[in-house]
Design brief:
seven-stranded parallel β-sheet; 40% helix; Glycosyl transferase family 1 domain-containing protein; membrane
């Protein structure tokens, strides 16, 4: 008997990470699983889950089990092939343990290209989320990268073990990929936003952090090179003080080791210029991010990686705040489609400084459109996300 679209009875949802959106996605699917009592769900997550699960509620149910693995279950190695092998080996272990019929991977590409080889004689049907869309980088990729990308997608289309391949936040790519690889496995998956509810108590961050300026420019998430974090700081350093005297720049998130030294050197220069900058170098709670978004004028996201989307768009849209992004790739396409903010040609300090020099915060507020943001949010609900996968 097929119930709720399933002929299978046991579903395993597997994720190696619990950082950022990973925890959110697991929770969305957990809540949806509560509604499907006739199906057994097994969630396998990193043991660090216990340190952050308080951020959401997890009602107990007879049809849901949560299993943990330790970081030590994945041997450390710098060899990409071995890393992939160990991940698949761990995955296979839990598939056998739970006797799963259906496997859902929150991050599919981490297990490629070895994944189909581990399940070549298995009846398990595999689905998973794809974040990085190779179509956006194919033109600029070296030959080896092109061969690697094409090979993985040929595997997706060839191996019957792959059931559904969810392309995150890109409505066009699934159609192109299905046509290119003669399949119907590629499906659009909206990146969901978490709506505000009565349980969310926004913090008075202006008072807590002593912010006196009328405007806040926010940059949050994992602060890394690919996010344009250093370029933003460099642009602040280059911009005349009188142009940004009414603005406080806020950086929320753990600073990556690879940029920490450069970050602190630039920060010291900016502080010597007496420009307004606040840095919160730590894992930031959902509530703190929301509280700063509520007070911000614009969210800075000049990401260098143009092959995938970002949940930052959801946070900004929730409060009707425009974003500043790069005029290329998937994020650019979304920003243009829903008119979510401003675009610059590249992630370069001089272009960011030009924006700070010539586009005033008053102009940003004047040009903001709540109607466009509402349309974006309506198309990116948790319900659409969860029902697409389950």
């Amino acid at each position: 008997m097929i119930k709720n679209g399933y002929s299978n009875k046991t579903v395993l949802i597997f994720d190696l990470s619990i950082d950022g959106h990973h925890l959110e996605y697991i929770h969305h699917l957990y809540i949806e699983a509560l509604k499907k009592r006739e199906i057994n769900f097994h969630f396998v997550v990193n043991s660090n889950f216990t340190k952050v699960n308080h951020l959401f509620e997890w009602p107990k149910a007879e049809n849901i089990n949560i299993y943990f693995f330790q970081n030590t279950d994945l041997p450390e190695t710098n060899n990409a092939f071995l890393k992939c092998y160990y991940k698949n080996k761990l995955l296979k272990k839990f598939v056998k343990k739970t006797n799963a019929d259906k496997l859902i991977l929150i991050s599919l590409m981490e297990f490629m290209p070895l994944l189909p080889l581990f399940f070549i004689n298995s009846k398990v049907k595999i689905s998973g989320i794809i974040y990085l869309i190779y179509l956006y980088r194919y033109k600029f990729s070296i030959l080896f990268q092109k061969i690697s990308d094409i090979s993985k997608y040929l595997m997706f289309s060839f191996f019957s073990s792959f059931e559904k391949l969810y392309i995150l936040n890109d409505e066009v790519s699934p159609r192109i990929l299905n046509k290119k690889f003669h399949t119907s496995k590629f499906i659009f998956l909206p990146d969901p936003y978490i709506p505000l509810d009565n349980h969310v108590q926004l913090e008075p961050v202006r008072e807590q952090y002593g912010i006196k300026t009328p405007f806040i420019y926010l940059h949050f998430g994992a602060l890394e090179d690919r996010k344009g974090t250093i370029e933003i700081l460099d642009a602040i350093h280059r911009t005349p003080s009188e142009k940004i005297e009414k603005i406080t720049f806020v950086f929320l998130g753990k600073i990556g080791k690879s940029i920490k030294k450069d970050f602190m050197e630039l920060l010291n220069k900016i502080e010597s210029q007496k420009k307004n900058v606040i840095v919160k170098d730590q894992f930031c709670s959902y509530n703190l991010i929301l509280s700063f978004c509520n007070e911000s004028t614009i969210v800075l996201m000049p990401y260098k990686d143009q092959n995938q989307s970002s949940g930052v768009l959801n946070y900004a849209s929730l409060f009707g705040i425009p974003v500043l992004a790069i005029n290329n790739g998937l994020i650019c396409k979304i920003v243009k489609r829903y008119r979510l903010g401003y675009l610059i040609d590249a992630c370069k300090p001089n272009l960011l400084a030009d924006f700070f020099n010539h586009i005033s915060p008053e102009e940003i507020i004047k040009n903001s459109s709540k109607q466009n943001v509402k349309l974006f949010l309506n198309n990116h609900t948790i319900e659409k996300f969860s029902k697409t996968i389950l």
